Amino acid sequence: MARTLSSLLWLLSSSVLAGELHVFTSDAGGFDTHSVWYDDGHEVTVIDTQFTPAYARQLVESIRAATKSPITRVIVTHPNPDKFNALSVFHALGAVSVASKKTAEAMPGVDAYKRHFWTKVARAFTDETYPKVEPVTQTFEGQLVVRLKSNETLTLIELPEPGVSSSQTVVRVDKTGDLLVGDLVAHRAHAWLEGGIVHGQPRPTLDGWRRDLKVLPTLGKGTLYGGRGAFGPVGEVVAAQLAYLDTAERLVTRLVATRTAAELADPERAKALHLEIQKALVKVFPQHAHPDLVGFGVYGLVMSKKPRAR
I want to staple 82 with a disulfide (CB 3.0 to 4.6 A). Which of 48, 51, 186, 190 is the partner? Predict the structure, then answer.
């Protein structure tokens, strides 16, 4: 009887109480990336892995310092390296990794592109030291409801447009309506404007990004957690992100129009343009964090605004 009553009380408490969201943030070497993790009291689900295994191990240590719940799952919101590069750390723990089919299929191409950059161009890594990416263990299309051990659910929703990358998944905490979206949002922080890597080339789609953002208020009414920057109410954060993208596109379009094709093709002059765009965006958004991300990532948006050869 006592055991039955105890089980009933546990079921009642699990049906009322929600788990807890936590955030780990890397330092600048990991691009100040947020990994959000959800502890339902029985297991931990991590959203996005960090850029390198070293940062992922820091994330794991912070989780273990906060809870006894085991890490059973890691979700990749989109195919950027700071979201999937450290899957090996979580697989070694026995965790299941989950991503949309589109994201999983894009990962090898993104890995090849970024591996070349970091090992051959930036030379910050060698082929041996750059993270070895492992494939995700579970994929889905459209939508996936994940039932946790507490009987709570997380719903994974694949957005219709590419967004910040070539594919985009939203993770919704169903009890609270909180949305976890990776780099689709950088609230009060500068955005990564490279675009998705498709067939070895950056392909930004700001119109698609905006359409994805406009879907978010229909999915949840809680707090919106992005990949960098601050967090806030869904409607407020979406409005701010839309305003930022509109401003960035206007500035880039105007400044690209002042350059000749030869100037845009010259690496040093192109770099100077990227820094000019960064300064212009900082002037409009002086309180936004991580302005260096503009200088590094805006080349993709610049390329999309070049006049097409006739």
Answer: 51
